[in-house]
Amino acid sequence: MFPVMIDVTNQKIVIAGGGPIAFHKVENLLRFGICAHIISPDFHPEIEKLAAEQKVILHRKKVEWDDVKDAFLIMLVTDDSEANERIAGLAKEHGKLVVHAEQTHLGNAQIPAVLIRGKLMISVSTGGASPTLSKEIRDQLEDQFDERYEDYLDFLYDTRQYIKKYIDSRPERRKWLKKAANSLYLDHPEERERFTAELTSAYPAL
Ligand SMILES: C[C@@]1(CC(=O)O)C2=NC(=C\c3[nH]c(c(CCC(=O)O)c3CC(=O)O)Cc3[nH]c(c(CC(=O)O)c3CCC(=O)O)/C=C3\N/C(=C\2)[C@@H](CCC(=O)O)[C@]3(C)CC(=O)O)/[C@H]1CCC(=O)O
Ligand SMILES: NC(=O)c1ccc[n+]([C@@H]2O[C@H](COP(=O)([O-])OP(=O)(O)OC[C@H]3O[C@@H](n4cnc5c(N)ncnc54)[C@H](O)[C@@H]3O)[C@@H](O)[C@H]2O)c1
């Protein structure tokens, strides 16, 4: 498994199956603003509610290859192992990302437990050994990487954009980028202004 962050803006994401696990997957996708298509003969009541709020798109039928062939990512969470296996095989053949929630080796992707603090994202995976442990480790990290990281990451992001725009010399860039990542600016937000003043006086905006 190779971890990678993927921009899924305007990409079609399909979930096959409409049970409690599908609902869990949908809730996770919604955290990222993703409106998924769900294909299933029936749906968990909470999924029906989300559909009424136009947060998911429902297709009341058994999954077929035609329903998923234009998807970017497919999550197979039906209780029909034959359908899960068949669609997973075709999806891999066609170079798609596919999560087989029960027999992971039949898919090529897995969903990690995630902690989000603004631009900071920490993903934990055990490669299917124990999703419970992934969740526990994520929960433990919540205290260490608390809400302060949200503003801190915004500061680092803005600083980085400025440095890339106004400093040409690579060693100088590195010097300032390393300086910005000092935990002083996490613990003492008031120091960020001093840093920015120093940076903009050394390298004024053109
Ligand atoms: C991380 C998380 C992300 C998410 O799904 O959003 C996620 N599972 C979560 C929770 C969770 N899932 C299960 C329990 C019950 C206790 C337990 O089994 O430990 C709990 C705990 C709970 O709910 O408290 C049951 C379970 N999970 C899988 C199977 C099938 C199997 O193993 O055969 C079974 C049924 C086993 C059985 O009963 O037979 C399979 C997968 N689950 C994965 C991800 C992938 C591996 C990731 C990894 O290893 O790190 C993988 C392989 C495929 C996939 O779905 O991508 C999410 C927590 C996120 C959060 O809370 O934020
Ligand atoms: N990854 C995880 O976190 C995790 C956790 C628990 C279970 N699972 C696995 O996920 C699967 C789903 O779990 P669940 O509890 O939601 O099951 P469930 O039995 O409650 O729901 C299955 C859903 O799939 C639908 N379905 C059945 N055949 C279908 C087909 N051919 N096409 C489309 N939809 C079809 C059913 O109508 C139902 O809505 C199971 O295989 C289970 O082993 C995964």
Provide keyphrases for this structure.
14% strand; precorrin-2 dehydrogenase; two-stranded antiparallel sheet; 206 residues; oxidoreductase; Rossmann fold; alpha/beta; Sirohaem_synthase_N; porphyrin biosynthesis; EC 1.3.1.76; 3 domains; binds nicotinamide-adenine-dinucleotide; elongated; Double Stranded RNA Binding Domain
Radius of gyration: 22 Å
Total individual domains: 3
The ligands found in this model are:
ligand PQ2, nicotinamide-adenine-dinucleotide
Quaternary structure annotation = single chain
What percentage of amino acids are in beta strands? 5-15%
| Number of β-strand runs | 7
The DSSP helix count reads 9
| Mean pLDDT score | 97
The CATH top-level class label of the largest domain = Alpha Beta
Q: What characteristic shape results from the CA principal axes? A: elongated
> How widely separated are the two ends?
45 Å
**Class by helix and strand content?**
alpha/beta
Question: What kind of sheet is the major sheet?
Answer: 5 strands, parallel
Q: Residue ranges: pLDDT <50 for 5 or more in a row?
A: none
The largest sheet has its strands arranged as: 3-2-1-4-5
Helix content: 40-55%
Instruction: Give the CATH H-level superfamily of the largest domain.
Output: NAD(P)-binding Rossmann-like Domain
| CATH-defined fold name of the largest domain | Rossmann fold
Domain Siroheme synthase central: 117-144
GO biological process, one term: siroheme biosynthetic process
Pathway: Porphyrin-containing compound metabolism; siroheme biosynthesis; sirohydrochlorin from precorrin-2: step 1/1
EC number: 1.3.1.76
